[in-house]
Design brief:
It is a single chain. A four-stranded mixed sheet has the order 4-7-8-9, with no helix packed on it. The radius of gyration is 16 Å and the shape is globular. A hairpin with a 4-residue loop joins β8 and β9. The protein is of the alpha/beta class.
Length: 160
């Protein structure tokens, strides 16, 4: 399990259930993840099988809207660049039934769609109708954003 913290140099907290033992429930909180997780860069993640993405609203194609900061999409792109996620990585979200919208959630090329929606009353698995991002869309990031996120800054410096 990995918990992202993009403003840190080692921007993911890796949680190994085998090492956590009876502290697994504690580690499932933000404070517990910080206490028991091992800080690593994206290159040290290993393969991620499932991502749980927070959502404000979703549609039945898998389109999702988060809180609007784009962090979930950046986390995915960083993991993709490191080879930690691929086409087999399942992206899941949990929402209330009322958060599933009729129609379509607007999506851009860097937005990460979900494969599964879990609500209190049902589990919905979509056929992947929306393409996954191909990587980091550098045109969407300001110099200040890149500078504030060390993992992005390292990748940007390699591009030059």
């Amino acid at each position: 399990m990995a918990v992202p913290r993009l403003r840190a140099a080692k921007c993911f907290l890796r949680l190994d259930p085998a090492r956590l033992g009876r502290r697994l429930a504690q580690a499932a909180t933000i404070g517990g993840a910080a206490k028991f997780g091992e800080a690593v860069g994206p290159e040290a993640l290993g393969h991620i099988d499932i991502i749980v993405a927070g959502s404000v609203a979703v549609d039945l194609r898998g389109g999702r809207v988060g809180k609007g900061g784009g962090y979930s999409d950046l986390e995915f792109a960083l993991a993709l660049a490191a080879g930690a996620v691929d086409d087999d990585t399942l992206v899941v979200t949990t929402v209330h039934d009322a958060q599933i919208v009729r129609g379509r959630v607007p999506m851009t090329a860097h937005d990460v769609a979900v494969d599964v929606i879990a609500t209190p009353t049902r589990l919905i698995r979509m056929r992947r109708a929306l393409p996954r991002p191909a990587g980091i869309d550098w045109r969407e990031l300001s110099d200040a954003q890149v500078a504030a996120m060390p993992a992005l800054a390292r990748l940007a410096s390699r591009r030059r």
